[in-house]
Amino acid sequence: MLRIITFIAAVMTFLMAGAETFSYRFNSTPLPKAIREIMEDHPELDINFIYNELETYKTSATVKTDDAYDALRQTIGLNPITVVRSRNTYYLEALQHGKYVYTGKAVGTDSEPVVAATVMLLAPKDSTVLTYGITDDAGRFSIPCDRQGVIAKLSCMGYKTTYLLCHTFNIGTIIMSERAVNLSTVTVEAANSQLYADRSTYIPTQRQKNAAQNAVDLLRQMAIPQIRVNPNDETVTDNTGGKVAIYINFLEASKEEMEGLRTADVRRVEYLEFPTDPRFRGAERVINIIVQEYTYGGYTKVTANENFLVGLSSRVNIFSKFTYKKMTYDLYVGADNLNNHHTGNSTEGIYRLVDTDGKEYSLNRKESLESSHFKQNQYPVTFRATYNSDRIQIRNLLAFVNLSVPTNEYSGILEYSPKTVAGYSFDRKNPNRSNSIAYSGTYFFTLPTGFSVDFSPSINYTHGNDYTDYAVSNQPAIYRHAKENAYNYRLNLYLRKSFGQKHSVMLGGNGGDNINRLEYTGGIGYKDKFHNAFGGVMTGYNFQTQKLSVNFNAGIGWENSDINGQKNSDAYPFAHINLRYVPNQKNSFSAYFQYATNSPGISLKTSDILRENEIMYITGNPLLKNCRHTMVNLAYTWMPSNTFGMSAYGNYLGLYDRQLLIYTPYENGKALLRSYVNDGNYLNGEIGLAANWKHLDRKLQIYANPSQSFYKSTGIFNASCNSFRIRAQASYYMDSFYFQAYYESPEKNMLSASPKISKERNFHSVTIGWTNANWNLRVMAANFFNKGWNCTTNTTLSPFYSDRQTIVGTSSHSRINFTATYTFCYGKRVQRGNEVGEQSRATSAILK
What is the CB neighbour count within 10 angstroms for residue 355? Predict the structure, then answer.
């Protein structure tokens, strides 16, 4: 650790050696705060200004100079403020001293804000310019002035000049009419992607926004080279599979919640690594989608998703949003229905047992699937209320989910070798149902003197019933009923303090508990009381310049599990270091190191022993310990133009004394017991390249992501494997139509907590879609070259048990998907983003 810190310090010294004397990047920063930052960094400067005169002005300037006067002028920008230098003293003075303040908002006839419009305040008698201001990215302006009854003159390229006599200081919304402007042929292309020390920003094209049906689909259309979007399950990860938290306008949103997003309102997408904003709650990697904010009104969006050739697979939901002033209300209702006859698995296992004479022998047990039926119905309802102002964000959410699996059964032929009696058959049934209710809240406050705080409580409750019925011909059936009440709650508190533009510190803490009350009846009888409490505190520091960002955080975590009176506690440290260097807005280098702990789920700690089949029992381990892990990640991103972007990366993960599933003799060796222990290490490495290329005026877009993975396991499960995988996507946009093709090669991987190597089949698809202002219609044909229903092959190797298992399902089978979305508005358009959706349930402790 000391060597790493020394290396980072040396790199910082080298990178900062050639920096300018004045190097700042402000983002809507109050002008007095920006000037104070310069004064604090350069105490030799004598700068004089009156705070109250300048407090209404903001700056988004990038300052890069060795001259103090130029630094002040660059910081002030277009604000109506004079800078006078007298020897070594600088005087800043507003053109008007601000006896009154005129505020308002400029919008076009389409209600979109007019950005960077010039607002002049003129004397009513002779139209002399008294002062002026510039509208911000929301079209708003706030201009101090010493006169009443002035005339406001608004002008902007592409709009007719507008005059308004101001009878009050709150001018309100001013509508500027568009006008055609004849210009000579000039080609100006703004950068769609830019790299900064603290984030990467991407601006989706209009074609991409039109083609996308929801937020995750938009990320897939954009093909950002720093993240990976799985089209099968719509998960978003970094290039090495690490979790990426999704936010919209700095508020967390789940995958389901974003389905209602109207992508036309998206302004930009930000990718952040170790952000210090407390609203991100210590997340390591974040996608923050910035959408347009509106004043009042509402809209409703209907989404229907249907799959054909794989049985019934239907998802329908309705989302409605209404905003009035600072309050926004969301309502989400959905239905998810599945009904197919292709699910289950076929398993050929080798059991190392002991016969009645005490001699060891191997028994081959082959379970061949012949028929199956799976039916699931899910109905979520969610209501959310949000208060949003410049300094306060408050959100409260209440959700209910009904989930039922009335049919989950499969049957087939059972064979033994050496044979005992021929003609065995098996029948397995596992229906279940549950009801869940959840509450979550977000309370964010921006405080004076650079402080901000985020407090987020959440609580979930789930009541469930799970039935297992397994029968083998000529043998007693295995039957059990699990009734469960599961609760979990969590509290997060994060506080951030900024010291100018370069330094910030963060303090955070969280705590909670997972509580399960579980009762088994039927062939067995257990009454369980489980709980797994946790807590932690952390502190973080961020140093940031225009080109360099260094994040460091460390803390202590604590966990205590109580499984029917068997207690196990663990206190552990954790630390993260992230360094990002951006020599310009086209190149970035990043390095990341993590030391942390992996905690097993509560179902892995159960003390109950359940019978899985006639010669296999399953249990958990109440004394199962956490395991430590280290991670190292290196990445380079290059964005030379709007037509090409790439990211090269390498990642190493090591889990030490990890949790591992094992098989041991049971019932004097006549059966086996599956449980968990801490044993051996799990090592995983990956190198890869993700690239995005656009051609034909960016109508054609090609994305490719080849990667090579390396796996090694030590201890009881001593094995290794390597895997090459490529993901490729091509998109073509033609007016209102869009066409896409996707391919993902087969992948082999090694599971960290099981002596198992898994191999998945390929996935491929072609898509055609059509869109207009309200409708988005899409047809996709997937896996048309794949035959059969097999999707995954698992191979298990252990001293007492080995098997080869074939998973049967619909994910790799040929299918046709049809998806339609329709959006209609009422009243004035509102902010569209962070749509509420189906919420999570409390964690179950039922052993499976």
Answer: 11
Place of tokens 């080609």: 187
* Interatomic CA distance for residues 779 and 141, integer angstroms: 46
The answer to whether residues 629 and 596 touch, using CB atoms and an 8 Å cutoff, is yes
Distance CA 584, CA 189 (A): 18
Amino acid at 785: F
- What is the spatial distance between Cα 558 and Cα 569, in angstroms, rounded to a whole number? 7
Taking 50 as the threshold, does the pLDDT of residue 522 lie above it?
yes
Nearest to 333 by CA among 399, 246, 387, 404: 399
Grouping H, G, I as helix, E, B as strand and the rest as coil, residue 216 is helix
* Main-chain phi, psi angles of 12, to 5 degrees: -60, -45
Residues 555 and 538: beta-carbon distance below 8 Å = yes
Residue 16 CA, chain-centre distance (Å), reads: 33
Rounded CA-CA distance 301/758 in Å is: 39
Nearest CA to 523 out of 573, 568, 480 is that of 480
For the whole prediction, is pTM greater than 0.85? no
Neighbouring residues of 407: CB distance < 8 A, sequence distance ≥ 6? 373, 374, 375, 431
Cα(97)–Cα(131) distance, integer angstroms: 10
Element (H, E) at 652: strand 644-656
Please answer whether residues 362 and 352 qualify as being in contact, where contact means their C-beta atoms are separated by less than 8 angstroms.
yes
Q: What is the pLDDT of residues 712-771, one digit of tens each?
A: 999 999 999 999 999 999 999 999 999 999 999 999 999 999 999 999 999 999 999 999
813, two tokens: 């089978």
Q: Which helix (H) or strand (E) holds 92?
A: strand 89-94
How many residues are present in the chain? 848
